[in-house]
Amino acid sequence: MHNRKHQISNPVEPSSPATPATRPDPEVVPTAKRRTFSNAEKLRILAAADACQARAHCATFFTWYNRQHRHSGIGMTTPESVHTGRAAEIRKLRQATLESAYKRTPGRFKHRVPRQAKLPTAAWINPPATEKKAV
């Protein structure tokens, strides 16, 4: 073609960079020529890596969110404890602890026994048309 150094020699891929990222092809012997990737291939590789990272993050996050994080909308219990039916037992133990603390130091609680907020009968993000959102 031309002797110009910076001109792209492949007219089919005019948007490819002058020095594409390279990596050794594992199927070829180590002394072989390095394989170059097109921009589209690079994007597919990055997207696959990002998807794997996103899946790993979501697995960790949702485990924490459902099993450890206490939600104010469901009485400071975890979604897992509500779903498995353990929320009522947890609330009884908490109330016993609050009453015990009140007996030891009533001035700390403005001289009235502390009570937990009531649990909602239902918790919705988008309630069905036949249900009303619980208060």
From TrEMBL:
Integrase catalytic domain mapped to chain residues: 50-79
Pfam families: rve_3 (PF13683)
Chain intervals for the UniProt region annotation (Disordered): 1-35
Annotated coiled-coil segments of the chain: none
Composition bias, Polar residues: 8-19
Alphabetical list of InterPro entries matching this protein: Integrase_cat-core, RNaseH-like_sf
Source domain of life: Bacteria
Protein name: Integrase core domain-containing protein
Organism of origin: Massilia jejuensis
